[in-house]
Amino acid sequence: MKHDAVELRWLADGTYWLGGCLSANAQGQEVHYHVSSYLVVGSKATLLVDTGDPAHRALLLAQLELVLGERPLDYVFPTHPEIPHAGNLPALLDKYPGALVVGDVRDYHLHFPEYRSRFRTQAAGSRIDLGNREFRFLPAFIRDLENTLWGHDDGARMMFVSDGFSFIHDVPAARGDGEAEDDDEPVHLPGQCRLLSGEMPEPPTVDQAAYGTGRALYWTKFVDVSDAFEAIEAVLDTLPTKLIGPAHGNVIDDVDGMLRTSLAAHRRVYAEGC
């Protein structure tokens, strides 16, 4: 995969979609794959959700400089310690020597021992006052690691869901043995990198969501996630949400529609796995 530089997008007052896309060849056609970061800018402090892929290090630092100017980056929230989510931590902490790493950081000292004094544990339910807005840490109702967390910015009414709610925009054609030729990543076409889900040519289907879910989160073949979606809806009733920001996949602006599609996809994956 190669680096595809894309511009950042303003999503709401004080909230920006950063990071970039990787590109690959799928059956002779170029496709892209989001590795997104999100910057929340309050009147007192700033917070970055996920660090993006090291392939986008220079791009991410340039995006931060463009938005922040002389302001510092105060907090970095990797949703969990995998490369697309925490891989740029050293570069960010070197660039912004006052920044703290927040979240469920129980094992980050194993990955980045030289920065251990800058880790601050934030449990689900805890909050950070950024000034004129509050960032809240949430349980990761759909996760791939034990210490994954989600987040919510009440300023933009946006929920950040790590590896949750990703989807592809075309189910790859199957080979003769019934297996798909492409990777399990939620791919999209060039030119669609900074589109909201409602700006895409077609809304995501249950087939597309199920394809990505069953491969990227293999455990969903064996777990009925109906209770998890009830918990998500309970949180949404408490925290009004207009946007959902996955690390992989277009930003979702039809929250109710995507919940229905994603739940149906999870149920299909579970039924087929049983």
UniProtKB/TrEMBL annotation:
Gene3D superfamilies per the UniProt record, alphabetical: Ribonuclease Z/Hydroxyacylglutathione hydrolase-like (3.60.15.10)
Q: Which UniProt keywords apply?
A: Hydrolase
SUPFAM superfamilies attached to this UniProt entry: Metallo-hydrolase/oxidoreductase (SSF56281)
Could you cite one Gene Ontology molecular function of this protein? hydrolase activity
Coiled-coil segments: none
Keyword Hydrolase listed: yes
Q: Which residues form the Metallo-beta-lactamase domain?
A: 34-248
Asked whether the keyword Hydrolase is assigned, the reply is: yes
Which InterPro entries does the record cross-reference, listed alphabetically? Metallo-B-lactamas, RibonucZ/Hydroxyglut_hydro
Q: Which domain of life is it from?
A: Bacteria
What Pfam families is this protein classified in? Lactamase_B
Q: What is this protein called?
A: Glyoxylase-like metal-dependent hydrolase (Beta-lactamase superfamily II)
